[in-house]
Amino acid sequence: MKNIIFFGPPGAGKGTQAKIISEFLDVPHLSTGDILRKKLLDNDNLAIELKEIMSSGNLVSDDILNSIVASRLNNETGKGFILDGYPRTLKQSEFLNNFLLKTSKSVDYIFNIKINFKTLKNRILKRSSEESREDDNIDVIQTRYGEYLNSTEKVSNFYKENYSSIFHEIDGSQQIDEITEKIKQILKNL
Ligand code: AMP
Question: Is the pTM of this model over 0.70?
Answer without folding.
Answer: yes
